[in-house]
Specification:
6-stranded mixed sheet; 264 residues; alpha/beta; 11 strands; 5-stranded parallel sheet; Rossmann fold; globular; single chain
């Protein structure tokens, strides 16, 4: 098995660490890695990269897939994103998010995380609208808050008796006419009646918190498509699966084994 790894200068530090660790562990996993530090060269059936929404790398990824290649992508994890050395990075294969690949998985990785499910929802509480980042807006052909404005207006019509509040992407702008919710995500979600997002990791945070979710993409679509308020058992089964779609640099060899099994 051969894999071209796009390990470019100025890659975000956590992304660089994950990719480097995967390269270092590749021989043990029976994978031949070819590192490209400039541009994509099309040298292997597999392509591995960090940040699938990166505007320079995006055309290379699409060209690789059009040619019949398989794509392995990494980005910041669903939880434990900021743990020193053992920070988590989320994994996907052949798509921006792995919702089509989610299936029941063993519980050990989720249980090792030590996360406790909560029931923080309040049916009369605010609706939390989660904003897009600049890269996603660009991929959608918009550099403005077009998606957010459209969603916010629709939510006010649907829920005239609830407040609609806005949670911007880190460093994002406020949404005129709506209260902005900053601070730790647990505090934002506590007492909310609904979270609405395009594909944000906040959907996974809301799953842990027991707050209903509506989303258009992201791994959470596997749970919430047509089912905004799943049962506690459904949430737990989903989170057990999510735990297998994120890995730390220290787990690179195990990550390769998981990837190889899912590529078949």
């Amino acid at each position: 098995m051969r894999c071209e790894v796009l390990l470019q200068p100025r890659t975000a530090l956590r992304g660089e660490k994950m990719l480097s660790s995967m390269v270092e562990a590749s021989a043990r996993a029976g994978v031949e890695c070819i590192v490209s530090t400039g541009e994509w060269r099309g040298l292997a059936p597999l392509l591995m990269t960090y940040g699938l929404g990166h505007l320079q790398r995006r055309p290379w990824q699409e060209a690789h897939k059009r040619g019949g290649g398989r794509l392995i992508g990494w980005d910041l994890g669903y939880w434990n994103r900021d743990v020193p050395l053992a920070f988590s990075m989320r994994l996907t294969i052949d798509d921006d998010h792995p919702h089509r690949l989610v299936r029941d998985e063993p519980a050990d990785r989720w249980e090792a995380a030590g996360i406790v499910l909560r029931e923080d929802a309040n049916a009369d509480g605010p609706v939390v609208l989660v904003g897009l980042g600049k890269k996603q807006r660009a991929l959608m052909g918009s550099r403005t808050q077009e998606w957010e404005r459209r969603q916010a207006a629709a939510l006010r019509r649907r829920f005239p008796d609830r407040e609609v509040v806005y949670r911007p992407k880190r460093g994002g702008d406020e949404l005129p006419g709506f209260r902005t919710m900053q601070g730790e995500i647990e505090q934002v979600l506590r007492g909310a009646s609904l979270v609405v997002c395009h594909h944000s990791n906040v959907a996974v945070d809301a799953c842990i918190a027991g707050v209903p979710v509506e989303c258009e993409d992201g791994i959470a679509l596997a749970l919430y498509r047509g089912n905004p308020a799943p049962s506690r058992e459904e949430r737990l089964r989903f989170l057990r699966s999510v735990a297998w779609w994120q890995w730390t640099p220290l787990e690179a060899a195990r990550a390769w084994e998981f990837i190889k099994a899912r590529l078949t």
